[in-house]
Amino acid sequence: MAVETERIPARRRRPGGRLEVLGERDFTRFFVGYTTSLVGSSMAPVAVAFAVLDGGGGGTDLGWVMAARILPVVLVLLAGGVSADRFGSRRLMLGSDLLRGLVQALFAGVLAVGRAPVWAMVALVAVWGIGEGLFMPAFGAVVPELVRRKELVADVNTLLGLSRSVSAVVGPAAAGLVTAARGPAAVLVFDAVTYGVGAFALARLRLPERAAADGGESVLRELRAGWSEFASRPWLWITTAQTGLFNLLVWAPFLVLGPLTAQRDLGGARAWGLVMGLYGAGAVSGGLLMLGRVPARPLAVASVAALGWALPSGALAAGASLAWVGAGALVAGIGSAVCGTLYSTTTQRWVPVELLGRLTSFGVLGSFALGPLGLAAAGPLAGRFGTGAVLLVGSVWQLVSGAVVLGLPAVRNRRWEDGPEN
After folding, report:
1. What are residue 263's phi and psi, to 5 degrees?
2. What topology is assigned to 229-418 in CATH?
C-alpha cells in the first residue's frame, strides 16, 4: 500500500501544533526508546577506542577495530533492506537491538576479566556492525508507520534528527567522564542497557505487521526489483549520488584535516571541540527550525541548505580565524538538520511502503560507501597537494554540485504534494 498523498498545507501548520506529533502514542514510545539507545550508542565508540589503547594496542590496532565495525554495516545493508520489506521493519529492528545489546554486554564482560585481545574486539565489533547494518534500512522504513497522520512525518524526522544531534554532543563527553572514572566496561554495560530500553519500546509498538513473504522470490530477485525502483526515481538517485560524493570529497577530508589544521593554526583540541560543538548547536537549531514546517519544494530547499557545508572547509582552506571557521560550522550544522529531515521525509512520503526498506538500503549504501575511502585518502592527498588544496576542492565541489543539482527539474520542481509517483 502506497504512502498516503492527500494534500496538506505545504509551508506551515497552525502555530500551536509544532509538538503535536508527541500526541501520537507509538511515536512517543519509539522516540523515548530510540533516544535512550542513541545516547548509549554515541558513548560506545569512545569506550571501545580506550579499550584498545588501554589494552596496549596502537593506532594500527585501533584502525582494525574501527574498520571491523564499518565494513559489516556496508555488507549487510542490502540484505537488511530486503528483510525489512519481507518481514516488517519493527521485527528486524527489535532483533537488531537485542543482538547489539548482547554484544555490548559480552564486550563488557571480556574487558572486566582482563585485557581483551585485539582479535576478540574485532570479532565483537563486527557483530555489532552487522546489527547496525540491519537496523538502518528498517529504521528508514518504519518511520511513516509511527504516526496515523502522514502530515506529521516531517516532524517525526525532525525530532529524531534532534535526538541524533544532541546525542552526538552529550554522548562522547559523558563517555569520556565515565571511562576515566570507571573504565570502558562501564560504558559498554550502559550501552547494553540502553539497547534493552530501545527493544522494550519497539516491543510495545502497536503497528500493523506485514505478513512474512512466502519465499517465492529470491533475495537476488527482490534486490533487482528494488534497484529498478530506485533507478526509476531520478530525484532519489540524484540526491543519493550527491550525498555520496559529499561524504567522499567534503565531509571525510573535513573530519581528518580539520583537527590537523586546528592543531597547527587555531589552538589545538579545544579549538576543534568548539568548532564541532558549534556544528552540533547548528544541527539542533536547524531541527527546531523545521518543527511544524514542510516547504512546498522540499528537495530544492534541501539543496540550498546543503550549500552551507562548503563554508567550514572553505574557511579552513583560506586560513580564516577560529571565529569564521566556527561560524561556518554553525551554518553547516543548520544545513545538515534541514537536509536530513527533508531527504528522509520526502523518501518516506514518495516511496510506497512495501519498497521503503530496499530503497532506503540503496540510498544509505550509496550515501556512505565512499566515506571510508575519503577518510583513508585525505591524509595522503594532503601530504602531496597540501591541506588547504584538499579542503578547497571539497568546498568548491559542494558549491558547484549543489548548483547543478538545484538546476535539475527532477529536484527543483518536485513538490511535497506530488505523492509517490515517479
Report:
1. -65, -35
2. Growth Hormone; Chain: A; (1.20.1250)
Grid cell 583540541 in the structure block, residue: 269
Distance CA 258, CA 281 (A): 18
The burial class, CB within 10 Å (0-12 / 13-18 / 19+), for 7 is exposed
Tell me which amino acid residue 65 is.
V
Q: Do domains 18-206 and 229-418 have the same CATH topology?
A: yes
Q: For the chain, give the number of residues.
A: 422
Question: Please, what is the angle between helix 153-182 and helix 322-350, to 10°?
Answer: 130
Segment 377-393 mean pLDDT: 86
- Grid cell 566556527 is found at 326
Cell for 98?
537485542
Residue with cell 566496561: 185
Q: Which residues pair with 293 in a beta bridge?
A: 12
Give the model confidence (pLDDT) of 346-368 as tens digits: 887 787 777 777 787 788 788 87
CATH superfamily of 18-206: MFS general substrate transporter like domains (1.20.1250.20)
Higher pLDDT among residues 124 and 364, named by residue: 124
pTM (2 decimals)? 0.71
CA distances in angstroms from 164 to 14, 108, 287, 325, 397, listed in the order given: 26, 24, 10, 23, 27
Task: Identify which of 182, 36, 191 has the alpha carbon closest to the alpha carbon of residue 105.
Answer: 191
Q: What does the alpha-carbon distance between residue 374 and residue 391 come to, in Å, rounded to a whole number?
A: 12
Residue with the bigger pLDDT between 211 and 180: it is 180
* Grid cell listed for 412: 527543483
